[in-house]
Amino acid sequence: MSKLSYERPFIQKLNTGSMNKFGTKTEFAPVSHLDGVAVKRLTAEYGSPLFVISERQIRKNCQNANRAFKTRYPKIQFAWSYKTNYLDAVCNVFHQEGSWAEVVSVFEYNKALRNGVPGNNIIFNGPDKSVEDLQLAVDNNSLIHIDHFDELYSLVELLSGGKQKARVAIRVNMDTGIYPMWDRFGFNYENGQAWNAINKIMAHSELELVGLHCHIGTYMLSTSAYATAAYKLCDLAHNIKLKYNLAVQYVDLGGGFASSNTLKGSYLQGADIIPTIDDYAEAITSTVLNANFKQEDLPTIILESGRALIDDAAWLVGSVLASKRLSDGRRATVVDFGVNLLFNAFWYDYKISPAQDFTHHTEDMALYGPLCMNIDCIRESVNLPLLNKGDQLVVHKVGAYNMTQWLQFIQMRPNVVLIDMDGNTHLIRERETVDTIIQQEKMPEYLKKK
Amino acid sequence: MGNNLTLQMKYWLESILHSYSQIFFSLNKVLAIIIIFATFFSPQVGLTGLLAVVLINIIAHLVGVNRKLINEGLYGFNAMLLGLFLGHQYQLTGSFWLLFIVAIGFLLITSVWLNSVFGKHGLPFLSFPFIITYWVVVLAVGNFTKIYFNEEHIYTINHIASQKGNLFYEFAHQYDTLQIPSAILIYFKTIAMTFFQSSVLAGILISAGLLYFSRIAFSLSILGFSCAYFFYASFGADVNELDLNFVGSNFIFMAIGIGCFYIVPNIYSYITVFLLTPLLMFLLIFFTKVLAVFQLTSLTLSFSVIVVLFLLFLQHRWFHRFLQLVTIQYYSAEKTIYKYIISVKRFSTSHLAKIQLPFWGEWQVSQGYDGKITHLGDWGKALDFVIIDDTNKTYADAGTDKKDFYCFDKPVVAPMDGFIYDILNTIDDNEINGVNTDQNWGNTIVMNHVNGLFTQISHLKKDSFKVSIGDYVTKGTILATCGNSGRSPEPHIHFQVQLNPKIGSTTISYPIGYFIEKNKEKQLLKIAEIPLENTLISNVNRHVLLTEGFNFYPGKKIQFITENDEVIEWEVFTDQFNKTYIYCEKTKSTAYFVNDGTMLYFYDFEGDKKALLFYFYLASYRILLGCYNDLPVTDSVPLIHFNSILFQWIQDFIAPFYRFTKASYESKCALIDNVNEPTHAILHSKVQAKFLNMTFKNMDFDIELRDKRIIRIGITQKGIKKNYVCG
Asked: Superfamily for A55-311?
């Protein structure tokens, strides 16, 4: 029999409730393997903290989403939202699954081009597109989703007198009955701004209106909002057909499908309240199918879902640095990953599991990151087993936005590993070093140390 | 105007030539010229023959008979025979010419009459008009004192003696006493006798012309003659009779007609010729004896009777086994056979209605035809479909609720255009594993596709119907959604084709027009097949880029510019048989095509094989009108386009039995800019001709399309690439 591991003493308030012979057992299951690979092996090989991504899960998510939509509607196209996770390896898995690229900056645009996405399969969204960016997009025949009149004017100015044509769509914002209304992006539907923009586009022969786009929010818990959005886009499409006899090629419903993470302040667990991808698909496709398009005019539905396709395909593995007691008696655990790596910890209560076996005793604690900043708190209160220094933790469903919004602040960004379909691990982003950071820095001559 | 004149000239010239070559079921001009030349070995006979052809064509044209038939020599060839006969039989006096004109007029009337009588039954009138006219004339002439017999064929020895020193006569008859086996000599004499010539050289020339025209027809003429020779010898009849009075010609014509002209040449058609020979022989003797009473000869009567009888017999079979009637007449046995073989391969299912799968996306066949669960007996030809995930499960979560099943509430679409005949929508969906055997079919829709087919889709979700009885819907329209009603333990669609409108009628086996089967990450295009159990299948998507780009509607003009800035112009036409084709005026080339909406087929080419149209015909030989990565379409191309002459001739002789060369075709998408709404695509196709697995011809083609039209064709041959830009 191996030596029992040391477990520090703890204090637990007695709770009322029915007694059983197991005592107050918790449902904590240690997560010792990620997609079949031992956490111990991963940290030994790649260090801690460490992001781990499962290719299998990404593909499964893609196939699920594709099945949900394609069995309901004949023309479906997914476009991978680069901002959600633009690690090249991740993007290429999505591209292999048939996704286009949806980018919101020229940086992302170039990344998509580098990944071999054909120019005309790149959707260029976002409010920030310089004249040079627009020119690049036009040269590559990409889909430009115009966000504001100033962008429309610069595009017209850019193309005037030349022979080039741009394939454009407008981003439409609208009241879909949810709050907040993202009216800062695109043209408003209700006040006629969108129709105005469409008319302006149609007046310019160098602009080819190919689609209509909206993106009504993020982590949307209501599918009916999508039905409303789809309805309003279809209404615009009908009006375009009526006035200009032009059938738009696609309606782009954007993304915003919720992942099963739990929002802060939510009474119920995320998994229990979010709609499934099938629910979103049903709301969107049935609306478009019922919109009385002629069969040959039926537009393609483009979806830019990011979060729902990647969140549960990645984990963050970390280690306990210290365990301490706060002034008010609460337990606090300091770990080697903080909000610098888990930016989304600001609005998610991430599910965190121990990576090794424990007894059934647990304790409420605050989980703090390694930054020397007061804001660096991962969970204000989380019930975990009794952790010792060096123990490992696994944070679940961290695939979306963390690997793009992470900060090089105080700490370096760690390794990112991809587990492929056969269970092999591949380092897809190397941890940063001091050199990574200082190579961008310039030292004025007079400050150099003599 | 000048153009019009040359056209007129061409028309008349062709009408004359075709009248001669028609005798051997041909429109070959070289053969015609040889025959004309040979008939002038007896100048008088040649002259009357030619005059008869010209005269009947002119009269027919003036009175307004079908000009295409005139051009094909259909009236001319009987006139030619009559003209030859009259010139052969009588002296050319004034009274003779009167008789000649009357006879030709009568012949035309008889021809038109017989054409209408026989044409109704799809039968040829062959030489009946000639025979009837001949009888009428011969019997009438017996009463005329001013028509004199041509004595040179009665007193032949005198005639030969009188021609001594006539160089042309000596040239024509130089081989008459050739020392060759008598069978061969009789063969040549028989051929010559067909045109009322006694010269062996005429026979040699004409058979050479026949060989040049068609190897198959030539070999059949030998076969027909040999069979006759064999049976004459076997029955102890006189073989020397064969070159008299058209006796042998009957066997030769029958062999060509039955062996390769009206029937696609194959081993069975050759056997048929052998088997019909004794019958023909009996008929011949019968007619000869019966007609002898009237002092008439039967000439080609026996051949005409036996061919017509036999064709009628073939037409009335229920199953066209062994012998296939020729439907498109190319006037060439070689073309017929090569094109027939290919078209059987390509179009054997083209008459079937193009049913599509009644859903969107990728589904699995959970129970196929004659499945073990419920597709039994008379109801065996049905398909069940479900949706599965990557672990082959049909549901997510626990699978205890209908909604856990992927296919539940998914759209079910119309498999073909048609009327909604019946809807049953009163049955509640079962809980999982609940089976409603009282209302077996569950909520069901039956469509009437008007072409005699009905399709039934069952186990639909209650109250999910988007159509009502009597609606006309097009292929792909949503009908309802997948449910779990009736005898359905878990949600699925049941699909069957039937000949009766009643719900639950017995099923018939009917293939799906086009679908894609996916196995182990590879996708296969299936054409007119029945999906197999456990396969993953989806519909073929068509794309406007290709459907419009390859939409050759009649009247459409297409223009290409070569690298040397030459302009090539094509136009699309429809002919009287409703066949659509692209015609290139400059090269006089025609490429025939059909487009069934999902697939474009080019199936025939006539004309200049150096023309761009020929390459386009090869490049677009078979094009799937949907853009797919990695979905090649393959086919076989008729050999006659590729073989060298010598090669081709050897192949021709044995083509009815074995083909040692083959040409294959493949096309696929080399570039697509957008899988859903492509605006730019490059199709790559290649043709390979092989002789016993050795490639001797290799061609690569690119067809580039942009904005719903073809913009470029690239042809790579022997490493040289040429581009043609669409103007």
From this structure: Alanine racemase (3.20.20.10)
